[in-house]
Structures are given as C-alpha cells and as structure tokens.
Design brief:
0% strand; mainly alpha; 149 residues; 5 helices
C-alpha cells in the first residue's frame, strides 16, 4: 500500500515539476512574483535593502532546489521499501530525480522565453542530495533507536 501511494505521489510531483516547466517566461515570473513580494516586504520592514532582480533569481533557484528535494525524498522513501542493497537504493534515489531534472530542462528549452540550462540541473541536484541525505539520516537515527530498545 505504501509503495503504491509513493508511486502515485512521485508521478504527481513529476507532473507538477513538468507543469512548471511548461509555463512561458511571463507566467513563470508571475508565479514566483508573490514570493518575491513577500521577501521584499520582509526585508523592507527590517530596513534591509536588497536588489529585487537578484532576489527574484535566488527565489527561482531555491524553487528548483525545493522541487527536487521533495522528489528525492519521495524516491528515497519508495526505494527504502524495496528489497535491494543500500547501494542500489542510493544510486536509484539520486539518478532517477537526476534524469527527471535533465528532461525538465529539455522541456524548458522548447518553451517560449525559457531556456534549458545545465546549471539548473546542477542546482536541482543540490535538492536531490539534500533530500536523499535527509531520508538516510532519519532512517539511520530511527534504526539506532530501535536497536537500543
């Protein structure tokens, strides 16, 4: 049951990622505009001056990290339920989101005003490594606690 739920969640999350990639440049900028306004308002209230263009770029790159952080968590949880070696779990948990990231950038290269960038794949992989690392850390802590009991 958990496996099926995770497979559905993975499929939905990949669709969400690809949906975001299919947005043209204007729509994509508007989508992240609310986050930019929120951050700029917070910094303004703290009397901190920031460059809106740089801040917007950072928000967009953080969105890449977040999307792939979640995807990697879902894949890692799924593979943790399968009967395979830890090495294969790790390889699949990193490589499959990596393949999705490459496909994602290929999709973007065909969308008006967007570009498929290898640098974005590398940014996506930061999220993947963080997501996989978090799940592995939690599983190890949980296992050690169970061994002590």
């Amino acid at each position: 049951m958990k496996k099926n739920f995770l497979l559905i969640a993975i499929g939905i999350w990949i669709c969400f990622i690809f949906y975001n990639s299919l947005q043209n440049a204007d729509s994509s900028s508007q989508s992240s505009g609310w986050a930019l306004n929120l951050v700029l308002n917070i910094f303004s209230k703290l009397n901190i001056s920031v460059d809106p263009i740089t801040t917007h770029l950072l928000i967009r790159k953080f969105a890449h990290i977040f999307e792939y952080f979640v995807l990697a968590i879902l894949f890692t949880l799924y593979f943790s339920l399968l009967n395979m070696s830890d090495m294969y779990r790790l390889i699949y948990s990193i490589s499959l989101p990596g393949i999705v990231a490459i496909i994602d950038e290929i999709i973007q290269s065909y969308v008006p005003g967007r570009a498929g960038l290898m640098s974005d794949v590398l940014i996506d992989m930061i999220g993947v490594v963080l997501g996989v690392g978090l799940v592995i850390l939690i599983i190890r802590i949980k296992t050690k606690r169970q061994q002590k009991s």
